[in-house]
Specification:
Blueprint lengths: L13 E4 L5 H14 L10 H7 L12 E6 L51 E10 L4 E11 L8 H15 L5 E3 L6 H9 L15 H9 L3 H4 L7
Parallel strand pairs: 4-5
Antiparallel strand pairs: 1-2, 2-3, 3-4
Length: 231
């Protein structure tokens, strides 16, 4: 029998909803994702616009989308006195401020050790709810999933998708869906590996910019009337 101690299982990453204080981190991750997709010039988001349009736990009725952030496991407090994470040791010369036979007052009660600082954010999942008429049930649309390169290979993307699946079931939803660039074959294979299905029969459509304004004003509507299946 070997005397080597068993290797402890790796701690789970921390996943939580983003707060207003996380907006600079969210914006940085958006820029990271845009750079990965060669679309940096398309990013118009600012900290101000994200504050105005995202939903946060402090005001769940405000905004249109939520963000899950994932962090590496928080390291346990160090026992090395030189470490900044080590709790302070009492000085042997510190004066006694309370009689040992009496309960200490609120002024003399020892403060709890300082909390360990939160590790850097490893990635995010930004999502919003949608609706299926055929199933008459809500669902979740994943707008952006991104894990920083230095944290890849740890299963963080899978953990974020798992949490989104849990959120979908919690709200009584029937499906979790997203889009992926066709050239991003590694991601396509990864998604298929967790059970996602390609929607080959569907073509994504989008109206934006000047076309959105013209459509809102009804310009060019007469010649197009009756050509689609929406009337």
């Amino acid at each position: 029998m070997s005397g080597t101690a068993p290797t402890p299982a790796p701690a789970d990453p921390i996943i939580r909803f983003a707060t207003e204080e996380d907006v600079p981190t969210i914006l940085a991750l958006i820029h990271n994702l845009a750079a990965y997709e060669n679309a940096s010039a398309s990013v118009l988001a600012t900290e101000s616009s994200l504050l105005q349009t995202l939903t946060f736990p402090s005001n769940p009725s405000h905004g249109y989308a939520k963000t899950l952030l994932i962090f590496p496991p928080t390291p346990p407090p160090s026992t090395d006195p030189a470490s900044p994470l080590a709790p302070p040791s009492p000085s042997p010369h510190a004066p006694q401020t309370a009689h040992p036979a009496l309960p200490a007052s609120s002024e003399t009660t020892a403060s709890p050790p300082p909390r360990s600082p939160e590790p850097p954010c490893a990635g995010m999942a930004l999502f919003f709810t949608n609706y299926s008429t055929w199933r008459s049930a809500p669902g979740i649309y994943l707008e952006d999933l991104f894990v920083r390169p230095e944290y890849r290979g740890r299963g963080y993307g899978t953990r974020l998708l798992q949490r989104l699946a849990q959120e979908t079931e919690r709200m009584g939803g029937k499906r979790l869906e997203w889009s992926v660039l066709k050239w991003n074959e590694p991601s396509v294979r990864f998604y298929e590996g967790i059970g996602a299905v390609r929607m080959e029969e569907w073509v994504g459509m989008r109206v934006e910019g000047g076309a959105l304004g013209r459509l809102a004003r009804g310009e060019g509507m007469e010649e197009m009337r009756g050509e689609g299946g929406g009337e």
